[in-house]
Amino acid sequence: MTKTTHGRFFEDFTVGETIVHATPRTVTAGDVALYTALYGSRFAVQSSDAFARAVGYPHAPVDDLLVFHIVFGKTVADISLNAVANLGYAGCRFLHAVYPGDTLSAVSEVIGVKENSNGRTGVVYVRTQGFNQNGTEVLDYVRWVMVRKRDESAPAPAPHVPEVPSALAPDTLGDAAPYLSLDHWNRHLAGSPYLWSDYAVGERIDHVDGMTVEEAEHQIATRLFQNTAKVHFNQHTEGQGRFGRRLIYGGHVISLARALSFNGLANAFHIAAINGGRHVAPLFAGETVYAWSEVVDRAELPGRDDVGALRLRTVATKDRSCADFPLVDADNRYDPAVILDLDYWALMPR
Amino acid sequence: MTKTTHGRFFEDFTVGETIVHATPRTVTAGDVALYTALYGSRFAVQSSDAFARAVGYPHAPVDDLLVFHIVFGKTVADISLNAVANLGYAGCRFLHAVYPGDTLSAVSEVIGVKENSNGRTGVVYVRTQGFNQNGTEVLDYVRWVMVRKRDESAPAPAPHVPEVPSALAPDTLGDAAPYLSLDHWNRHLAGSPYLWSDYAVGERIDHVDGMTVEEAEHQIATRLFQNTAKVHFNQHTEGQGRFGRRLIYGGHVISLARALSFNGLANAFHIAAINGGRHVAPLFAGETVYAWSEVVDRAELPGRDDVGALRLRTVATKDRSCADFPLVDADNRYDPAVILDLDYWALMPR
Amino acid sequence: MTKTTHGRFFEDFTVGETIVHATPRTVTAGDVALYTALYGSRFAVQSSDAFARAVGYPHAPVDDLLVFHIVFGKTVADISLNAVANLGYAGCRFLHAVYPGDTLSAVSEVIGVKENSNGRTGVVYVRTQGFNQNGTEVLDYVRWVMVRKRDESAPAPAPHVPEVPSALAPDTLGDAAPYLSLDHWNRHLAGSPYLWSDYAVGERIDHVDGMTVEEAEHQIATRLFQNTAKVHFNQHTEGQGRFGRRLIYGGHVISLARALSFNGLANAFHIAAINGGRHVAPLFAGETVYAWSEVVDRAELPGRDDVGALRLRTVATKDRSCADFPLVDADNRYDPAVILDLDYWALMPR
């Protein structure tokens, strides 16, 4: 018998089962500084205690995506260590602001399983909840991954495929954002004159800049999130694997795209929800990430006159400018440069 | 109309205009740790709360150059995104100590413009002020950059070239340093027996060590400062550009040279002012930085018997030892290895 | 006369002499975040204030090895700048928990010297003590290094070789760990069901994962520790040196092996002592580190029923899986892939 964990295989997941993940993690000013250093994010609310206080936060909250990555990271050892692919996310809501000093932990419930017809793999659906040290839920999302079977002859479980929402409704958004004091929202400091009402559905924004990723950078980031997926860290094995090299954590691309989106969306201070996301193609070190966004929808939040929500589709590419908004061809196949297609709700002052 | 910022061009600058820069930034212990990790600085006042308290600070102040880089970083999107070259700095004074928890913001005034005779570019002079969350000025400097015109047919503005000081006078120095309790200045802990009176004008000091720079390091540093200059981050475009590769932020070289200068100047605990600096040649990843310094002047500070000022010329080279103090040849041309020629005032206990 | 330090040579060390090292260093949440980002450590006590408080700490202590690296780093400029090789460690005890905000300083006593028969080098033995800002000793160890002579004709000193313990006795362990409230030790959060009594002497554990090291990562780490050994940082000189490249700090390997050991030893929350360690072969950037451990001994701590000690031999390899526990061949020669052979005591809840 070994003391070592090799991760769960498909037949180890049972619908209804709850998994308490290791390791709880206190988020600190150190993590925030590293997040800035790794992605170059410039949103004023997360960057400045003074700005955050002026508009209604007790002080600067932790970047929403840093919270996501830390909670997600905890689930890897239990859920996706033997995953073939991350298939999707849905229903991801940010429910409570996280501040330096808060301790995050994560619990997942298995909400679906379905063996693939090849008998070698299956799809596992989990709902993951992130909590702070007071037991307050800060994050909630559904994720489904394709996982290998340990024993191909193990019988297939009864298939159970949960319903997942294609998008969050506007009345479910905004719990993590305090009521904002708009008089103190200084647009010079925030970096853009454009507020919620200035954006039109269908509008496309090229975020202009490109960011080249180095091996050390994505490894430092992914370890910061205590994410242990082997493919990101081991050149000795990955060099002989599918791609011949280490694969960059998909969340690294999401954070780069979000940081680049400051140029054009500087007042989109908070990600309220992620409706879904697709990692269309892998990113490798040495490649350069660009991004563009389309405003897919605009919504008021019931009972709030301070902020509105923009539903954004942010597309990231590699080694290709986004000046002409690359996406799909006539046959609806992704442009070969596209690596991320993300659908989320961001809040902006009205 | 686009929501995206492409930066100002030469004709967008008007003498007398004031620019409030995004994004305010709370400096934390996380930034301080990253600064240490990126440059290896070892000055005791900035490294140790206990040492700083013993000599008269409330606790360890943030490294002067970290303050400079953060304030400078804010100005890039507004001032130098379309710059061809950073031409110079002058009159840079550190006016108030910055501590973890302080929030820095920056404002620039356009103090001069002069179109170049080629009609394609012009020189813009700005005075930038950095402030803390209480509105106290912490940093003040003049900088001039060569900026492209958007439209070459735009008429040239009336030329206005401001006077800039060639060096700060000793009586303008020291506002950011408390009166020191010299009895508690432990030279063993500080790393050197040599105090202000031990240094002679004309003395040259080889700082001995070399530090090789990696792409990930300068990118992490430059993003930490929220500096968005494209040339530092985008291999996809820079690979086809002037140098075929990413250019390292000039401030990275200044910080490396200052950290190396600990060996020989360990008691030079505070940069009071930067008289001027020249980035003689570019630095690229994989190259190794060395440095040496000359004591150019020595000054007492009016009314202070605790500290004195040394005016230092610190020269950095790449891939060349500084044991023989490389600088200029008989025709006053820089040695090809020289990359930085910096003129500043540092304070030392008397 | 120069103001620069070139480090001590063999003939500069006198038995009985005390050396106060520069630079005191306040450890912060920023250092802790960087440590996590560089090694990916997941031990719950060091990761979570909430977990640490529940089991009896005031809040999360700083990782033991971060304390070791910072204290060790201070000694390099005085002890090993002209070292040919680090020969060994012994008697390393962690005596008091270190928390963010504490300031560490270091003092060494020369406890032995012995010139080598070649007349060009000698072995220097030092006992180093690390202290916090209150003067409480937090770390104590003996180290011996081979150091070059400045002048080969200098007479050999009287040889003095101190006795060093081969291992710490169990009754010397545990001073840095509070009495634990085991009712609150949540093994789900800690990451493993196995406690002290579940481990058997002779048991071997493959830690499974591999971690590839990049130049930027080990340089960032080693600078964070303010360790100034030239071989880690200067490609310009090392490119023409013994290995043709920068040598990675041996402590980097120790921290990687410890972080990897979480998989199999997740409840081994504290390193109480390092009995000895051998850097069997050098590690270079681009290589991948694996590790395995053997339980060498198990001991109760006198007067404590909360925790027990496991004496562990942790072996790290490069570019070779540890699934078959590589160590020595029939002639007791190390497997060519082995880079570290570490002997230490870790504490675990009973």
TrEMBL record, chains A, B, C:
Molecular-function GO terms, alphabetical: lyase activity
Any matching Pfam family: MC_hydratase
SUPFAM superfamilies: Thioesterase/thiol ester dehydrase-isomerase
Gene3D superfamilies, sorted: Hotdog Thioesterase (3.10.129.10)
CDD domains according to UniProt: FkbR2
InterPro entries in alphabetical order: HotDog_dom_sf (IPR029069), MC_hydratase (IPR048274), MCH/BMMD (IPR052342), Thiol_ester_hydratase_Rv0216 (IPR016790)
PANTHER family recorded: BETA-METHYLMALYL-COA DEHYDRATASE, MONOAMINE OXIDASE-RELATED
Protein name: MaoC family dehydratase
Organism field: Microbaculum marinum
Lineage: Bacteria, Pseudomonadati, Pseudomonadota, Alphaproteobacteria, Hyphomicrobiales
